[in-house]
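Continuing the series of single-chain predictions for the mutant panel. This is the parent chain; the variants come on the following pages.
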Amino acid sequence: MTARGRGARRAAPRVGIFGKVGAGNLGNDASMESVLGFLRDRHPDAVADAMCTGPETVRARYGIGAVPLFWHHKFNQEAALPIATARKVLGKGVDIFRTAAWVRRHDVVIVPGAGVLEASLPMIPRGFPYSLFLLSVSGRMLGTKVAMVSVGAGAINQPLTRFWFNTAARLAYYRSYRDPGALEAMRQRGLDVSRDHVYPDLAFALPPPAPPQAAPGGPQTVAVGVMAYRGTNDDRNQADQIYATYVDGMKRFVRWLVDSGRRVLLIVGDVNGSDDEVVREIQADLATSRPELDPATVVAASVSSYTDVMRVLQPVSSVVAIRYHNILCALKLSKPTISIGYSPKHDVLMTEMGLPEFAQAVDSLDIDELTKLFTQLEDRAGELRQTLREHNAVKVRGVQDLYAELTDRLFGPADPTRATPVREPAV
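Parent structure:
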């Protein structure tokens, strides 16, 4: 199974899941759930565990072993600043050996989906970019197959972040991307992508749950997905102003929806608490500006998993959202959807699903134009649902093709010189 000179493949291959999962980002967790489903269905003998940012959640929810991605997370995060800083600095060295020891125990390590090769949201080079670098270096040195599976990628302007990510990608045993734009971004970043592949986002393989017995919904209910958006990795100096402008726009849009007779379901895509603040600001604005409004007209969905998001979206008539995987979830359920995007990946997704005209950019968002676009969305709802159903069928087949390839490349005889064509078919 490995290149460690230990002979034949083990009867029960050890598979590691590596990444920012279990820490509140429901889209990242959806990608991991999809991979765990693949292992359960096609490789039931595999023994899986994780190195991740939310090990407690992963252990409790998914029933697999998990250790922290960062050594310093073992300690009280409320420690005094000098102590916390010292631990973080020391941890960069400790994590070299921790990561290598963890990788060595596995035959395969999968980095499941998500935007692991992009920096469209703020991050620091010494965080996840450095950890991904350590993973791929360890995998190359120890003979463990590191697979970056249907991941996102984009242009990165920060030199050190780009270096960590590019080196990690070069050293990986296998790479595939969730859209052609991600593959092109890596080509422009200097990687040889001639043997890399394009497949749909892993979340397309997740089956929708049974609809809830009682949930807010119906033909006049609109789901509005919100986010504590503070700009991209290049916008840190304007983060507070960007946040205020975005939240003010969402308040205005929700007021227009309720004034037009719609009910609103507010949803989040990250359950670490940051998105909840936007929900509270919108509800406080309504309490002041529309004091006579029935509180049941605008409610916040309670979600703790991607399955929860799918469940609460099933009864609604349409969706307007900003978080990528909230948008993907709505499209997967064939809901007429408007994307308020902060990255090219939003536009690519909407185009691939046949709704390019309903993609708006958050940094140039005009609420008057958004209300006009929403009216068009409702007018074309029947047509758009049929379009989405057709594209969804293609996406599901694409993920199944991906998993067939992973079985061959990671769990069977592999020919690393074989080039596989891009597998993202058009409808």
